[in-house]
Amino acid sequence: MIVEARGLGFTHRAGTAALSDVGFAVERGQTVGIVGESGSGKSTLVRLLCGLLPGYTGSATYAGREIGDWLREDAREFRSRNQLVFQSPSGSFDPRLRLATSLAEPLRSLARRKPEPGELETQLGEVGLSAELLSRYPHELSGGQLQRMALARALVVNPAVLYADEPTSALDVSVQAQVLNLLMDIQDRLGATLIVVSHDLAVVARLCEYVFVLRAGSVVEHGETTALLRSPASPYTRALITAAESVALDRGVSPVRGGAARRTIRGWRPHG
User: What are 85-114's pLDDT values in tens digits?
Assistant: First the structure.
């Protein structure tokens, strides 16, 4: 396993337990979804696994080594290998800096080097952006462009594990499919492990091979995506699926967007 947790717990300073006895395991190169309603502990889990929340209980490892040990002894190496794309791309960029400076920052701080000539331009091309955007400020980009820029910044250090926290929640429906296709292309091309946090089961159905369902800080169910969505064992998972189908029917669309998707879930469609 490249990422694994056993009996994982985390309590906020206010005394609220955000995670309780969580078991979580991801194989190298796998694409895994973490789903649940708001407040279920999804974002807390990925921030902990990325080393952004110290003070957890239980065990959390990357490549067989405890994350706490990584952070004490090889923090730069750990952060280079584990990159997080935050839920709000606009909030993760310094509005005072041009995007060239922000995109180069992981190289300077983690790899301790300057970008090679043309390196940033090449990285933007990998996510479908023009090099001319490097001279702009974050507010000058659209939501979809800024999400792609956030992906480019995470990928510039060639991580082994890429975490995407609600990668489409801040985007218009017309842009969501583009970002999902981009994530699939990145995973296929680079072979990186992809861990996706989402409350949207359609996103997980399209992207992920395996899924963990969180409720109130605990894993209530996990399994291969197709089987789990077709025959959920937990009433909570069934309620999430019903809610997703209701939203899709209101919109007049299928929960699994994009008819040409390479990863589709058979047997899970709106009723009627």
Answer: 988 888 889 999 999 999 999 999 999 999
Query: In terms of Cα–Cα distance, which of 160, 158, 196, 194 is closest to 63?
Result: 160
Q: Are 263 and 207 in contact (CB under 8 A)?
A: yes
Which ranges of 111-220 would DSSP assign to H, the alpha helix? 119-126, 143-155, 173-190, 201-207
What is the model's pTM?
A: 0.88
Q: What ranges do the domains of the chain cover?
A: 3-91+159-251
CATH architecture type of domain 3-91+159-251: 3-Layer(aba) Sandwich (3.40)
Reported as a single tens digit per residue, the pLDDT across 56-65 is: 999 999 999 9
Give rounded-to-5 percent helix, strand, coil for the chain: 45, 20, 35
Assigned token pair, 203: 């996103």
- As a dihedral over the C-alpha atoms of residue 92, residue 96, residue 101, residue 102, rounded to 10 degrees, the angle is 0
